[in-house]
Amino acid sequence: MRRLWPLTVRGTGALILAIACFVTANEFGVTELMYFGILLVAVIVASVASLYLSRRSDVVTRSLTPDVATVGRESLVSVTVGVRTALPTPPGVWQDVLPKGLRGKAEGVFPALGSGLRRSDRVVELSYVVTGAKRGVHPIGPLSVQSTDPFGLARRRTTFGQRTLVTVAPALVDLPPLTDFAGESGGTLHTTTNQLGQGADNLVARPYAPGDSMRRIHWRATAHRDELMVRQEEQESTPEASVVLDRGALRWATEALQAPGGDPGFEAAVSACVSAVARLVHDGYAVEVLDSDGAVLAERIDGGDMTEVEVLLSHFATLTARRDDSLGRLPRLFAGIMTGPVVVITGRLDASDADVLTPIVHHSTLPMLFSVSPVGNALDRAADAGWRVGAIDPEGDLAAVWAGAVGRGVSHVLG
């Protein structure tokens, strides 16, 4: 935002003094004061002109490290300003406008610049640290620079309109591993990376067939046989897991429907979802992420593929609740099959909901049910039916809830 008054306190005082000189010279006929007043006005005009004659041509670009910010974690914002100025400029103060989705101190000293009439654009590198505060896609900018003339009489704020959209992903919590529960979860818990370490050459490879995932291509065998080959054993040996995030509107506050970050309960559930996926993938499970109506929220992620987990985080940055309630239809998705861990994450949960979900227990080697707003004894009732249950508090410790659900069956963590 540009200031309407271009003079500093010192410049304003000089202008008042010049006016006083003119008035006094006129009243008392002191010619010297008239000259002094004219000199002050000339200096003020020259100070203002020096700032506007040195009008800069600037291009602002920003980059984030890592590329996607995460709620609760720090990221480095690097700002590159391409500058060309007709006259030398004194140092100034810069400030970048941060959205509500990010917290940090985005300001500092802008360096002095020499004349660029005979040289190419100079590049000024700025940086600052931000912390993700609210999930979503948020704009950073514009960047503004306030500078003063060498005498400190005039000031000018220049705003550069370029903005940069930044994705803030949900908080990713490092959950305890399931390694100690291999017998219950129904399969080996080694990651794909470990499985394919020194024994990768011994995997059985077969020719590629339409419909095979490109992620299962065996590149070494492909290069050897000069045709696409896929890993035969990977699909057969990788245990399966499912993570269900219930986005039904009746389970959440109305803010969850409008935009990311509006409902703390829904934010806690999204964080729990991506954290559970990351844990299971790291433990070697092939994970599918579903809504309670069966809609696929993310493509199947192979065990050990943490790169796809990062993609999931970016995708979930804009996830909101939906205008429906289909938790009661969830058991149909697992009818007639037997799978590994099934993690169900929902908002409001009452005893009747717990009863409806009971059939899933018989189709999973490790059924886990988490609720942000359990009603009455709903979780105890679900635990009696065979679920490993946990109450998620937006201000609580998700890792403790997860560990308690796996280890003891029932975990209630208060904020």
List its traits.
7-stranded mixed sheet; single chain; 415 residues; alpha/beta; 12 helices
How far apart lie the N and C ends?
41 Å
Count of alpha/pi helices? 12
The pLDDT mean sits at 84
Q: Per DSSP, what share of the residues sits in E-state strands of 2 or more residues?
A: 25-35%
Largest sheet: 7 strands, mixed
Total number of beta strands: 20
Shape, per Cα inertia axes: elongated
Low-pLDDT windows of residues: 180-202, 409-415
Structural class: alpha/beta
**Strands ordered across the widest β-sheet:** 16-15-14-17-18-19-20
Please outline what is shown here.
The chain contains 12 helices and 20 strands. With 415 residues, it is of the alpha/beta class.
Write the layout of secondary structure elements.
Elements: H1 9-28, H2 31-53, E1 56-65, E2 69-70, E3 74-85, E4 92-96, E5 102-104, E6 107-110, E7 122-132, E8 136-140, E9 143-148, E10 155-160, E11 164-169, H3 182-185, H4 192-195, E12 205-207, H5 219-225, E13 229-231, H6 232-237, E14 240-245, H7 255-258, H8 264-282, E15 286-291, E16 296-301, H9 306-315, E17 339-349, H10 351-361, E18 364-374, H11 378-385, E19 388-391, H12 398-408, E20 410-412
Parallel strand pairs: 2-11, 14-15, 14-17, 17-18, 18-19, 19-20
Antiparallel strand pairs: 1-3, 3-7, 4-6, 4-9, 5-7, 8-11, 9-10, 12-13, 15-16
